[in-house]
Amino acid sequence: MSDEQVAAPTNRRRISQRGIATRDRILEAANRLMLVRGVNATTLDDIREASQTSKSQLYHHFADKQELVRALVKYRGALVLQRERAGLERLRSFSGLVRWRNALVQANSLNDGKYGCGLGSMALELSDQDEQARSSLSETFAAWERLISDGLHRMRDSGLLRQDADPEKLATGLMAALQGGYLLANAAHNVAPMEVALDMALEHIRSFLVQPSGEPVR
Amino acid sequence: MSDEQVAAPTNRRRISQRGIATRDRILEAANRLMLVRGVNATTLDDIREASQTSKSQLYHHFADKQELVRALVKYRGALVLQRERAGLERLRSFSGLVRWRNALVQANSLNDGKYGCGLGSMALELSDQDEQARSSLSETFAAWERLISDGLHRMRDSGLLRQDADPEKLATGLMAALQGGYLLANAAHNVAPMEVALDMALEHIRSFLVQPSGEPVR
DNA sequence: GCGTTTGAGGACCAGATAGTCCAGGTATTT
DNA sequence: AAATACCTGGACTATCTGGTCCTCAAACGC
Question: Which residue from A65, B19, B99, B155 has the highest number of Cβ atoms inside 10 Å of its Cβ?
Fold first, then answer.
């Protein structure tokens, strides 16, 4: 009876609104719990309870915990990229970068620097544990950096940035400052280090402006 | 018979060379294993086996896993600070910073960016799980940054850095770039992002030199 | 030498947790 | 209405793992 299902565990074709909703509820719960407790410290029972589903549903939608985690990596990646796309896809000026910085800082200050970046924390926890999750995360970081570097490219093309500015490297540096800022802020339970780190990166980018405005970053 | 021992589990005074050696062996093993697998994914049995000790010795030297982890946080912190003190306490020039950078990059490139910084990985894993470990890590980061900022202070006092340079902020920014670089390098299994991040931070510091030398960072 | 302290070794226990299975009920689609 | 997909609930297992306990050996002071 369930032979066909077993035969095609991954690419099952049955798609019902209800099923999708449950699957999403599970992912959403896993997302929430694993952000504050970490992946390994969160049990499937926690997720089952938080998502108001049953054990069998967990295993109906995901083969095992590892597959759930991998799905979560993509889920969270999609969330971040969607949020970041909204803030970055029309980036055309330095003040746009400052606004982007302010939004991130403000969001993180709401919980006193705790929890850090959903992607960054998974990266450290999973990189040496699940190669597939690692490469997926790596790709998400790359896509995120591309959103930034695309904006920087636009700024360079429009003559705002000097020609010798390297958008890719600047984006990587900014991303590292962001992730390092998240990490230090998390350790300190204080958003201040994240601000300093981002300001440093922005200042660095500012040094590539064709005509550096007199006012400082903030 | 063992009532007295139970009464004073923490501040025991018995100090034997043999005992210290065993304790250190345990910590050293925990350090090694937890660096690659993470804290939560490492079992006491792994540690027992790797340290060639017995279960009872683990619990003779540490009340429970949490105490072991906390001891490891200090152990690792001491190791890092010792290593960093050697490389930073005589920092007096920009080229000294570059040498410091090169040493870190080279060390991390030996394992293709994997594992990251022992402190940083613990910070993300423990910050929302063990308040005591978190604050201990936070202090270690502060001490590490102080090693850097002390060097920058010396450079400023000697007239190398401009007076408006803020050594504390520069040190925080550099530390964030380092930690973010570790994280991205770990996710990518490639040391390149760490190089870019550190170079950005160094370039930022260089912009505060009184007479910026013409040659780039590297 | 003798008793006490310290360390080694490992058997053992209890609880947590991933994962299985099934019996039956409810929605959705055709 | 029939078939298919989805869901509940919970019992059950195997394993892992933190933690306890007990015995024996070595070291050491008296």
Answer: B155
Query: What's the rounded Cα separation, in Å, for the pair A32 and A3?
Result: 34
Cβ within 8 Å of A, B 105-134: 114-116, 120-121, 123-125, 127-129, 134
Q: Which member of B115, B124, B141 has the closest CB to residue A116?
A: B124
Q: What confidence category does residue B54 fall into, taking pLDDT thresholds of 50, 70 and 90?
A: confident
Q: What is the CATH architecture assignment of B68-212? A: Orthogonal Bundle (1.10)
List chain B domain ranges. 1-63, 68-212
pTM for the structure as a whole? 0.90
Looking at domain A1-63, its CATH architecture is Orthogonal Bundle (1.10)
Backbone angles phi and psi of A209, in degrees to 5: -65, 145
Across A147-156, A206-215, B51-60, B162-171, least confident range: A206-215
B141 touches chain A (CB under 8 A): yes
Q: What are phi and psi of A24, to 5 degrees?
A: -65, -35
